Amino acid sequence: MEEPRKPVSEYSTKELRALCQGTAPDPARESLVGRFTRIFSIYTTRFFLHTPVTPNQITVISVIVFFTGIGCFFSSGQSTQLLGAFLVLFSIVLDGSDGETARFRKIAGRTGSNYTEPISHDVQYGISFFLLGIAVYMQTGEAPYIILGSAASIAKLLYRFLEIRYWNLRYGLAVGKEKIEQLKGSHDTFSAPIRMFYFLNKNIYSQNGNFLMLLVAAFAGRLDLFVLFYGVSYVALWLLLFGKQVYQLGGDIV
Q1: What's the confidence (pLDDT) of residue 19?
Q2: What distance in Å separates the CA atoms of residue 44 and residue 243, rounded to the nearest whole number?
């Protein structure tokens, strides 16, 4: 039988990392930003472990912080936009703390990992680019950025849903999120172009990767280029993924 946890104050930071991050996603398959934020998430986790706040409530807090950061981009001031970028970064730190808190309290369950957390990301993707497109429109008066922001949000969600449909079709509805990640990870043994695609997908097109580009946009004062880049590239990625899946499924879909 597993021994009960000691009070959190009796654990060193190193011990807490071993308990809370030891079963976290494989660092080799995490984005650079994701690995970086785990340096800090253990400290916010320690804070939450002294409170009655649940992992799902931490997820909600992270979403609120995220959209507060996005709201800062409605200002054209560089300092406010930089604040917004770092609030987005802090939301990623909190996003790591929800799982770490659950692991420490031994309450990790299907609801958090299979519903609450994925839904929180869907909400962020589904609204954030649209809001940023409106922010650019308010700053420039150019309406096409609303369309580009909307295209980025819609295409990213469609990409996520297309992945889920394909993996469930190929490996069965019973396949879990962890198994899917393992299967994706096995693709690292494939050709250099495929490995490069996965690297870019993790570090530019994931939620964590969006932060890096948002930070660059804030420094450069070019939020318009951020919205343009993702509006075009997310649509292109969705079309490429759809074409690839149609080719792989072949005659099964006709």
Answers
A1: 87
A2: 42
